[in-house]
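Let us work through a complete example step by step.
Step 1: write down the sequence.
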Amino acid sequence: MKATLKKMSCFIGLTVSLAGCGVSGTVSNETAIDQLSVSLNEEWQEDQTEKEKKYQSLLNSGEYDEDNMYIKLDPYGASPLSALLLFQTDEAMKAEISVAGKDENTTIKNNFEDYTTEHSLPVLGLYADTENEVTVTLTDEAGNSVEKTVAIKTGMLPDSIAKIDVKEADTSKMDLGDSELTFVVPSTKRAYAFDANGDVRWYSTRYNSHIFKELSNGNLLYLTKESNDADTYNVLLETDYVGKIYKRYDFSSSSAANDTGKSEGEMTVIHHDGIELPSGNLLLTVNDGSNYIEDTMIELNRETGEIEKTIDLKDVLPEAFYEDYDSTSREDGKIDWFHQNSVEYDEADNSIIISGRHQDTIMKIDYDTSEIKWIMGDSDGWPQSYQKYFLAGDVKASGGQHAAIVLPDQDDNTDTTDILYYDNNISVTRGDEASSEKYSEARQVRIDEKEMTIEEVWTFGEELGKAYYTKIIGSARYLNSTGNRLVNFGYRDEGQTSSILEVTEEGETVFDADLTDFPTSAWAYRAERLSLYNGKWTYQLD
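Step 2: predict the structure and record it as tokens.
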């Protein structure tokens, strides 16, 4: 399977100016978003505190040392393939742990750099239904080491996790570290992660929908429910891979909507994406409670849970786009005219890049003013006042695209920005009709914002043809260590298969896995390659 490397000439476009454009470019705070309320809830953390008091008591008891470690599987009741080791040493020592894999490439390791006499070590990456061998190496400040081994028995995987068939795994070319796994972010049910052999090494007991992001402190932004059998995903957590909760935000359900458009079924408030801003606050895609859905963002104060800002895309885009929209319809009568499925912050100019599936459009807007910087897509049907924002270049319009992200600098040119995204290639409103529904692909484009031009520099997927066409969901991620791309064809075979491939810059497929036999709608909405031990977080008992 090969990617296509393309170099196309750019054409000089127009510079951006809002003067006389007829676009409001304002931030709306007077919409039905007022119906949406958010509250901090510490109920689960209170239960967690009681658990930690017990663990701290055990650690302080003096009963456990390097020869007799206290082992607690799933210490917070949310991460069954994790454990906590508690013990004391007579002198200060640092620890290294290693969870034995089936081979060297699937052994999960981590170093704890602090010298201490009290050890509370999180163990991540255990196999399910296995007596796992975990090696703990303790080293004192003089460099003397001792090695201890413990066995940790785990339970069986739940039925809701997919069958994973790894068809190709060239670990010599894959982007793998000491604890990196491929994470499946579902549309519903369980989030989980598997290694290069296809063995699940992490999953959460808490159901998840769409929002699964690593924060700058190494914790996770995680959307779940009050309980797994609840109807609405309206609980947003800051948690970690061990299952410890640091923040819980409860969203009122008054603005919830069903992503499928049906009159019954699971609902969401935060529907497709959420990111961390440089301030630490969270920017979330939400429904505003009106008849128009999936066209609003809120900035949530990370500490207080207050909504500090609202961006309503109805204030940014042409009125006719939402008032006259008829490209799709829903059983519940809601109008999903934009269907925002991703947001990405660009620190270079304090802007956000958003993807609107139902307008077949990716666009960049100033975060402070909501003024448009550029639009990527087909300009037909847009008012004259918007034409100046369109990027010039011989690049096919995307269709129903997802997951647009900014890449690290690719060409040593500060004037250009590279965007990677997943092009479902289904023309919803103004996508490319000639190629629509024939294939899906990951695409990398290069934008010169001074010249207002765009060129396509890398694609992967067209050569796979109709077999890998996915009318909904999907993602493409850039893997920093190698430059490989992780591409998720999430909705193959009408949603019966999700296929995750890792592809090199040159187009060689080095990893290929099919996911099947999962519950309805529990396909891979996105795929991420993340480290269980990412070097950004340090576990400690509070």
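Step 3: interpret the result. The chain is about 5% helix and 40% strand.
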